[in-house]
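Hi again,

Forgot to attach this to my earlier email, sorry! This is the prediction with zinc ion bound. I've pasted everything inline since the attachment limit keeps bouncing my files.
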Amino acid sequence: MVLNWAGFQGAVSYTFDDSNSSQIANYDALNALDVPFTFYLQTGKSESSNPVWQRALRDGHEIGNHTKSHSSNDNGADTDAATQFIKSTFGITPYTMAAPNGSSVYANIARTRFLINRGVANNLIGPNDSTDPFNLPSYIPPANASTSVMDQQVTSARSGGRWRTFCIHGFTGGSDGAYQAIPLRAFLDHVQHTKDLGDVWIDSVVNVGAYWRGQKVLSSVTPTTSGSDRTWRWTLPANFPPGKYLRVRVGGGTLKQNGVPLPWDTHGYYEVALDAGSLTLSP
Ligand SMILES: [Zn+2]
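Structure tokens for the complex follow:
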């Protein structure tokens, strides 16, 4: 009954690693696309203190953890140092991280600290599938990637009803040598193409990730029956962000949370609050 990807055909998240200068220099053009991005800050770099990130938060983008020192090895301390920086600098809790160099040590570090850890091996992510949230796949465009090369990655996600994340380090012409830099124009045109499809959910990793993991939780619950009511009860995973919702559709009856009937959205679904921890369907 949960709508995959909030009712869209597929989902895409664009993530930016390493706090690179070309992300900062081109922030206005990126923000003008009017879609939420995820910026994974490497907090040991001076660029992470740039005021642009505070603006990015206000503009609705996600700030995530890419550790302080970008080491392939960590016992957790370097990850926690970045979380501390993000909390004290921006006053927010980071819910997702990206593993430096895709290093596998971060899967276990993230498991006790985050909702999601983004890795670097490309794959599609499906509703209710067994993809590891602590080594989430991601597509890294080749250096100088064209618009159409990136478009193809979205086309396959959309046609397969899946979620694709992109891992981008920066744009050509930056002062600090982003890994596999891509032309800004190609990226802007690509995101515009994705928007123009009209049925692809473009959102941050925390937003799509909470939906994906929340759907898995609700889908795994067997409802209990009391009279003619059926009730689903669940417990959210650790480090789950508050205030997240699932869109559900039912064949009839009344859905309630905390005893209050849910309003029917004219788009054709109910919005279920994951924080409530239960949902009751009455005929
Ligand atoms: Zn990195």
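Residues 17-18, 66, 70, 100 surround zinc ion (CB under 6 Å). The mean pLDDT is 97.

That should be everything now.

G.
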